[in-house]
Amino acid sequence: MQELLTNIGQFSMLLAFGLSCYSLVASFLAGRFAHRRLADTGERAAVAVCGLVTVAVLALWYQLITSNFQLQYVASSSNQAMPWYYKIGALWGGQEGSLLFWCWILTLFSMVTVLVHRKRNPRLMPYVVGVVAMVTTFFLLVNNFVSNPFDAIGVSRAGAPPVPFSPPDGQGLNPLLQYWAMVIHPPILYIGYVGFTIPFAFGIAALITRELDDEWIRTTRRWMMIPWLFLGTGVLLGAMWAYVVLGWGGYWGWDPVENASLMPWLTATAFLHSVIMQERKGMMKVWNMVLILGTFLLCILGTFLTRSGIVSSVHSFAQSPIGPFFSSFLILMTGFSLYFLLSRLDALKSENRLDSVISRESSFLFNNLVLLATTFAVLWGTIFPILSEWLTDEKRTVGAPFFNKVNIPIALFLLFLTGVGPLLAWRKTSLRSLRKNFSIPIAIALATGLAFILLGMRHFYSTVCLILCMFVIVTIAGEFHRGARARQRQGQSYWQALWSLTFRNTRRYGGYIVHVAMVFLFVGFAGAGFNEEAQKALSPGQDLQVGHYTLRLEKIESSDNDNYSSATGIIKISKNGQELSTLKPEQRFYKSSKQPTSEVALHRTLKEDLYVVFAGFQQEGKQAIIHAYVNPLVAWIWIGGLVFIIGTIICLIPNQHEQVIQKAQTKVEVDPYAKVPV
User: For residue 557, which of 595, 582, 585, 536 has the smallest C-alpha distance?
Assistant: First the structure.
């Protein structure tokens, strides 16, 4: 059965590669010559590719679950002692499997795009399908001929071909990945990465056809928001994993692969703001197209950094031969994008100009410039070590101090703009309106800052951050309050008014909720300015003091199972003399991989986390090395992530306001293939 499914999986990938090549060629030819039948076959081929890749994924999952260690990928990513859910997660835990999983998600997106848009956007669809097929073909090329998950382990013998060999057990999944969040973090992150292919395809199709009206931008906006939601959620889950698993007391270390996931999210965020300018004012058309194309290219860059082995990261895969393939693909797609962008600049001219610096339009512009500056700073810090090594043969590193020094002031200015935008009018804001709208938020924010200073807060950036957070919260609350009061006059209760207000214009008020999420995130970030830590080797009965907490090691317990052996520190914690709870940090040793890990123990409150790590042993196992941190306000980061998801989902819900606009702007779509005999 295992051998049969291996052959089926390999054959499915080969057949999918052939059909993807056909879909690529047929779709572009159909668009060029307006041939309906050819377009239909290209779309059907794209759907068939999805089915074939699904078969390959299911075949590989079966091999992982049944522990077919004759396959190199299964032997390196799984073992018999792993729980079944980690075996499922092993599909994306290694190089070959994660590429196949990436390709699978892409084909699912392709199929959904075909089913939803083949009649809505008939002019664009041949090129959309063709561009997506181009990306799919590349991934299938790599999966079939460079990094195949169905390759078997072979033992070479002199004068004879390799003989298949099956080891008694596998190496197992990287111990750092054996955490519940890692079962869902990579798929969510990949959906974000891969999903940006669809707006990229629509952008290229619009450039090729010169169909650059409002219809394509509305379609692209919704397709941009979906992967933006998943990528943002994936980034936060990754931060949670780093916080709980790595045992260093932090959640973001400006790791190159962390940066690679952050950059396309930043450019997509810029697009979701600036697209409002294009829809309402006919402005920033070139800029929006650059953001669409650039977001996709940054996703490919991030994949290249992850897979090539040229950067050192706890997230990256080992050195592999696929790095040159990804770099070549990145260069090809960059040239492809630039050609069509530069050749269509005349069709992307803005219809209006900025009327005033003090306007909502200008706030969107500044917002985009700040997001671009952040993206550039992160990109430069990430690739500088690579460029330095290429040019000087000297490896230089860019650490967290650089990123914090550059990005913290930029981020605070961005937070300020988040509060300013809703208070400004379109076109031009009068001085009277400025005084009216800004006086109360500024007064409350400054009063908050004064209170913090009087309470002894002295960290500059954290204090400024919390002041700005209060400013933004007050401005957003004011927007909801004014809208609700206006609807109250129609006979609704206040809470009914808030509900109907939000869902009558989900895009606007869902966006405000996302801004609230950003405030919660910044509150959590501000807490980093007040972190405390302490470390000590403890014998049973001894104490460790950190902040207001006292940690007493009661005993050390040992346990053993098929997957790992562990030592657990039983620690009673108290605060200001009052006993709170018992924490149980672990030190684990995974048998297959021969790797140790530390399992963090946490005492959480909205105010702060007590974060305890069992870092190792001293004096021949008689003492436990305990590292403890007090991390204020970290819980607000995870709360912010939840609010971010809720707000974005609300933005995606169709509402009456949008439906009215769409009906007013609906036009009869002419079939571009009408004159072609079928």
Answer: 585
Look-up of token digits 């954290």: 462
Q: What are the C-alpha distances in Å from 437 to residues 359, 420, 452, 481, 501?
A: 13, 10, 24, 13, 20
Residues 320 and 307 sit within 8 Å (Cβ to Cβ): yes
Distance CA 417, CA 364 (A): 9
At 457 the three-state DSSP class reads coil
Q: Three-state DSSP class for 630?
A: strand
List of residues 6+ apart from 383 with CB closer than 8 A: none
Answering whether pTM is above 0.85, one says yes
Residue owning tokens 């990579």: 186
Least confident window among 343-347, 420-424, 562-566, 656-660 = 656-660
CA-closest candidate to residue 531, choices 649, 441, 627: 627
- Whole-angstrom Cα distance, residue 144 to residue 96? 10
Compute the distance between CA of residue 267 and CA of residue 369 in angstroms, rounded to an integer.
Answer: 10
> Using CA atoms, how far apart are residues 156 and 162, in angstroms rounded to an integer?
4
Task: List C-alpha distances in Å: 287 to 206, 294, 349.
Answer: 15, 10, 10
Cβ pair 417, 366 in contact under 8 A: yes
The pair of three-digit structure tokens given for residue 490, joined into one six-digit string? 């129609």
Please give the C-alpha separations between residue 448 and each of 414, 442, 444, 456, 464, in angstroms, as whole numbers: 20, 10, 6, 13, 10
User: CA separation (Å) from 520 to 346, 470, 514, 631?
Assistant: 43, 10, 10, 15
Q: Residue 326 class from Cβ within 10 Å (0-12 exposed, 13-18 middle, 19+ buried)?
A: buried
User: Residue 581 forms beta bridges with which residues?
Assistant: 573
What would the pLDDT profile of 88-107 be if each residue is shown by its tens digit?
Answer: 888 888 889 989 999 999 99
Q: Tell me: the pLDDT tens digits for 184-204? A: 888 999 999 999 999 999 999
CA dist 234 and 223 (Å) reads 17
Identify the bridge partners of residue 535 per DSSP, sorted by sequence position. Answer: 627
Residue positions counted in the chain: 678
The closest of 533, 519, 527 to 459, measured between CA atoms, is 527
Task: Give the chain's count of helices (H) and strands (E).
Answer: 20, 12
